[in-house]
Amino acid sequence: MSAPLPDFPETVAPTKADVQLAQESCRRLAKILSRRRKKPFRLRVQTGNGKNGGAAETLSVPASAVRLLAEILGEMAQGNAVTLIPIHAELTTQQAAELLNVSRPFLIEQLEKGAIPFRLVGSHRRVLFRDLMAYKQKTDHRRLKSLQELAAQAQELKMGY
After folding, report:
1. 9-39 residue pLDDT tens
2. Which residues lie closer than 8 Å to 1 by C-beta, 6 or more apart?
3. Smaller CB count within 10 Å for the chain: N or C?
4. Phi, psi dihedral angles at 97 (to 5 degrees)
5. How far is CA 47 from CA 12, 28, 31, in A?
6. With contact defined as beta carbons under 8 Å apart, do 82 and 75 qualify?
7. Is 107 in contact with 93 (CB distance < 8 Å)?
8. How does strand 3-4 pair with strand 89-91?
9. Cα(40)–Cα(69) distance, rounded to whole angstroms?
10. What residues contact 79, with CB distance under 8 A and at least 6 apart?
11. What's the burial of 118, exposed, middle or buried (CB within 10 Å: 0-12/13-18/19+)?
């Protein structure tokens, strides 16, 4: 079942302090992840600092969630804003266009051409996030292939690239 996405979830833009903390946390978490692959992790979450004895709780977390956390920290460490969207989420055409960084009319043209699957809810088009990401991956791959071909041609013609 698809879940409507009325608005984008909150986007978290890291502060300078967040970037520094994310860099350190990501580095340490990557080291831990390199040692353990599939077993659940036990994480200790503590509020406040250890000196003041803040409340602490230990959680069991799937390894896949810890890998996702490492990716989030990696993006934050680079100063990137992060938003988490479920793969089964349904997007409006405006939301989909914003995610692809294209105009809404261009996106609708792609939908009507059949390049991206969609469904109608009344007279409104809805796009699954996973279908949108599949389209993006396909177009990114084609774009990269074209750039590689152009670079190879430039080298053959000794254009200094």
Report:
1. 677 788 999 999 999 999 999 988 888 667 8
2. 88
3. N
4. -60, -40
5. 20, 19, 24
6. yes
7. yes
8. parallel
9. 14
10. 14, 19
11. buried
